[in-house]
Amino acid sequence: MPVSGSMDKFAHHVANLLVGNAEHEALIEMTILGGTFIFEEDAVIAITGANMSPLINRAVEAEMWRSVHIKKGDQLSFGSAKMGCRTYLAIAGGFDVADTLESKSTYTRGGLGGYKGRAFKKDDEIGLKKHRLNLGHLEGRFIRAEHIPNYASDIVLNVVLGPQEDAFTAKGIADFFCETFKISNEFDRMGYRLEGKKIEHVDSADIISDGIVSGAVQIPAHGNPIIMLSDCQTTGGYTKIAHVITSDLPKLAQAKAGDSIKFKALDVNEAHEQYRKAMAKYEVIRAELETLRLAPERNLRLKLMDKIFNVKVNEIRTKEK
After folding, report:
1. How many domains does the chain have?
2. Edge-to-edge, what's the strand order for the sheet holding 86-91?
3. How far apart are CA 303 and CA 179, in angstroms?
4. Do 183 and 231 lie in a common domain?
5. Residue 146's CB: how many other CB atoms inside 10 A?
6. What is the pTM of this model?
7. How far apart are CA 30 and CA 87, in angstroms?
8. Average pLDDT by consecutive 10-residue portion of the chain (321 residues)?
9. Cα-Cα-Cα-Cα dihedral sign, residues 282, 313, 82, 108
10. Rounded-to-5 percentages of helix, strand, coil across the chain
């Protein structure tokens, strides 16, 4: 049974923090192209990850990386991703779905978990859980721009070599780090197949099956790297040249077909340091969400040099302790 769950853990957790949920609360993940949702009751939402041009009632832009009030009867629609490929929609209180194996994750290949074990279809209805706080207390939460990721089509992934690096020639390892690979059209929640220079083995690409985790980089006999991700199997019989470090997995989750990837080697201590930095940033975001609020938005008309500009103004208020 795979781990499953969200691909971009950073976007997932921040979306939940924005609406006052526990960070691991279930939400909706959309890939490449978003959906349309009609709300049958008032709600507070947060949208993070890739920008899919979300609109309320097909007219008003739904701001991302902040909490937004949705009224009963409102329609929330998404287009296609601009940069990145995965968008997350969290709702205050969370979605009312049953646990499967103590998880709300959906594993579509096995038809397990989440909403009927599958992706959403037209006319599906899903209940919402009530939040412990009044929705008014959740409006105006946001994270500062410096914390919002910039998704790029050229990606450098930090990796730790092993555990089967001895199965590759010196040339094979050198090529792995020198080559710029492209993500092929074979990419999904299970893994990304890369295209580029073939990675050379000493002998066979096969091993006695051992454990696989998200971020493992397998090299089968054809020589093309495959990066395993959230829905990957738990064991496998191909050599693993390296593992993508945990703090780089959210960046990888936003990559799509045609994007380029280059690998950079770190040792274990350096990987741990990168993880500590990522967690420290996350804790700063968590702390700021308890103190910073946006006042209701004001729309102004500004005349400057005989030109008229429509301006949105947000006042940032600091919560008194």
Report:
1. 2
2. 28-31, 86-91, 43-49, 67-70
3. 53
4. yes
5. 7
6. 0.90
7. 5
8. 94 97 96 97 97 96 96 98 97 94 92 93 93 82 95 97 96 98 96 97 93 96 97 93 98 98 98 98 94 61 73 58 47
9. positive
10. 20, 35, 45
